[in-house]
Amino acid sequence: MATETLTPRLKERYRNEIVPALKQELGLDNVMQVPRVTKVILNMGIGEALKDAKLIEGATKDLATITGQKALVTKARKSIANFKLREGQAIGAKVTLRGDRMWEFLDRLLSIALPRIRDFRGLPTKMDGSGNYTFGVTEQLIFPEIDYDRVDVTRGMHIPIVTTARTDAEGKALLDAFGFPFRREGQGQ
């Protein structure tokens, strides 16, 4: 009995529509030069975890629910006396998504999660200088997988999207082709 694996719909759209359009738009000679997304990372920093270790457990559960992948607990690299932080103490959680899970997460992020943000006016357009993009989300409740009644604390997260783009213009063109809702010029903060 052969099992058929389904290709994520955003990945299929990227291959069939976005790659040819970007190749023409950016004036590239080869299809392999077209920028692509290599990984998506979800970071949750939990500063209050120094006082209450159970918060780390809640964050890892939330990240695992959102991504379908076990979260890695991040530890402090060095001690900082002013923050009462010791080296090796758990201070956050992260998940790195690649492959089909990455494509499915991006699809859910663009079509379901971002439209659920209250008073959403678009994402900031600032890239990192190398074609990668990072934005923050103030609460994990925008993801429909999270059960509102079981949330102990609302937590924000950073979501870096790493691409193979060589410049910010290429990276922005790639994310625009995916349909990222960026702020328009002249629109308020």
How does this model look, in words?
This protein has a 5-stranded antiparallel beta sheet with strand order 2-3-1-5-4. The protein is of the alpha+beta class and 189 residues long. Helix content is 31%, strand content 17%. The radius of gyration is 18 Å and the shape is globular.
Features of the shown structure:
single chain, alpha+beta, 5-stranded antiparallel sheet, 4 helices
Helix count, DSSP H or I runs of 4 or more residues: 4
Helix content: 25-40%
- Residue stretches low in confidence (pLDDT < 50, at least 5 long) are none
Number of strands: 5
Portion in beta strands = 15-25%
Q: Note the overall shape.
A: globular
Rg computed from alpha carbons, rounded to a whole number of angstroms: 18 Å
Oligomeric state as shown: single chain
Topology as H/E string?
Answer: HEHEEHEEH
| Alpha carbon gap, first and last residue | 55 Å
Topology:
Layout: H1 9-26, E1 37-45, H2 54-67, E2 72-75, E3 90-97, H3 99-113, E4 133-137, E5 157-163, H4 168-178
